[in-house]
Amino acid sequence: MDAESSICLSDLVPALRWSRPQQVAEVLADPRLPAGWWASVGISRALGAAGIDWISERLARLCVSRWEHLPLSDLLPALQVHTVDPALPAWPEPARTIVTGLGGWSRLRRLTPGDLSSGEPEAVVAAVFHEVLSQIPAQQPAPGEGEQAGSAEQAQTGKGAEAAEAASPPAEKASPVLPLPRRETARPTHEVEVVHPSAQAGPPAAPTAPAPAPVPQQTVPAAEYPLVGLVDGLFRSFQALEQAVAIERLFAADPVSLRALAHRLGVERELLSIAQRTAEERVLQWLRSSESAPVTGHLFALNEWLGSAATEEQLIAADPAHPIEVPVLRTPLWRVLVALMHDRRFQDGWLVVGDLGSLRERTRALIANGPASRDDLAELLGRELGIRAHSAGAWLDSQPAEQGPAGPGSAPGQPPQPLPRRTPGANGHHRSGPSVPTPAGIDPTAALATLSALSGANGRSHMMRGQRPGAPSVPPPLTSSPASDPRRWQRIEVTSEHLRGEPVAVPENYAAQLGMRPGTLLSVTGPGDNAVVLVWRDRQPVFDSLQPVLMRLNARPGDQVYVTVDGYRLDAQLTS
Questions:
Q1: What is d(CA 224, CA 216) in angstroms, rounded to the nearest whole number?
Q2: pLDDT tens by residue, 307-326
Q3: For the chain, does the N or the C end have fewer beta carbons within 10 angstroms?
Q4: Inter-residue contact 514 to 534 (CB < 8 Å)
Q5: Cα–Cα distance measured from residue 84 to residue 78, given in angstroms and rounded to the nearest whole number
Q6: Do 503 and 421 meet the contact criterion of CB atoms below 8 Å apart?
Q7: Using only C-alpha atoms, what is the Rg of the chain?
Q8: 91-141 pLDDT, tens per residue?
Q9: pTM for the full model?
Q10: Which residue stretches belong to region Disordered (predicted)?
Q11: Can you name the CATH fold of 486-574?
Q12: Where are the domains of the chain?
């Protein structure tokens, strides 16, 4: 059974691997199977859950609509060694007649789906897949389907589901979850079928009452929400420890410490730290790949719509998929998206680019010197601060009472403390306590620059240099310098290794000052719109590479360079 589980449909049909997941999901997604099942579920289990006819027909639809230019022997390499009776006795009559007219089985293997357009291409291609897949024994979905598709759901159903499992027959002992009755139903909307059939084996039906509450949110993400399926498919490919740190730290509302998680899992803390670093690097690599295009495109559009400040409610309501739970992560999609927005963080109920206190301070200045009309003021907020029209009213209503000269959240005579950055592994919501302003203002264009750098987008300079609605005409400059505020600047002694792109170590207290902790990373936008990543590896935080920054400054070995991170931007100065 383990050998069967390791062979997925994508192993038999390689085109599934390099096709865009959202295009594949439009045809192959089904509530009986988890998101991305063609790359994660054993083919025997998939055949047992969905049936050979359904899978063959859906694959044929993909071939005709997406892969019509590929020979059938490339789409299904098993055809090169598979032999059949030339008379094709088991084939349905329309397909058999068409194949005979084309020259038989040997010629059919060399044709493309486009070559079959004169006949019934889907019927012929479906028969080809049926011929090969029929050689694979189907496995009943009782044990396998529950483990693959139901484990994430059952983690949320509470004691009611556990009580129902205790009453199940001994034949189901191998599966600790209860998705089978629902998987027999082809429609995801009949949640009532999840409850009643699973309780038929025993009298204790009362404890199942709490179970239906979370079920509607988790039953249909793969079929109806491609973004959820795409993200879920990514993290299902992670190893067990990588999944654990993603669930408990990277995308959790309240991340646990590495020490606590290591104790809970019974593993060495060092292994967990390596797993987290691997998971973070895989996420960054995925964001740079074409496979993540639907997610990065969604983030671009979402950034534009949210503007420089928006509420959590607006974020959740921005797309129907946002409140849907990503099964493997056990967290809603919107929380995952926030973790991927390296330029934003929650502060006092607002998802803000940069610092909430600084944005409010600039808002008060506009109110004091701006127009009296509320509509004109809202337009001014959009033009100067990047606050969108649909958020302007709530933003104006949320402005606190006028503060004293010392500024909000600042004690007299005390320099402003930089706020923690939002990073994977350190992404809790900062909703309580006073906000502390930083000297610089908000530059909404840097949000697009950071995401472009992470996703490997090309040709974005015209977007960053030119004007666009909602962006300030000139980004506010940094007001501090190494001489005036040495606490915020870190001195780096440039070496030849640094100029070759080697990591650059920084003190722990400097990384902690930026809101980091061991095992986290911070991505910022440096000069020239270069993405610069600060990683706290093991016990030493380092910049992965400052080569683009140093080359831009024409630094040489022995020079002293000062760097500072201001919100989501990195600035560097070369001492004379």
A1: 13
A2: 889 998 889 988 889 999 99
A3: C
A4: yes
A5: 12
A6: no
A7: 28
A8: 777 777 777 777 777 678 778 888 876 667 888 888 888 888 888 877 765
A9: 0.39
A10: 138-215, 397-443, 458-487
A11: At1g16640 B3 domain (2.40.330)
A12: 2-133, 141-221, 293-477, 486-574
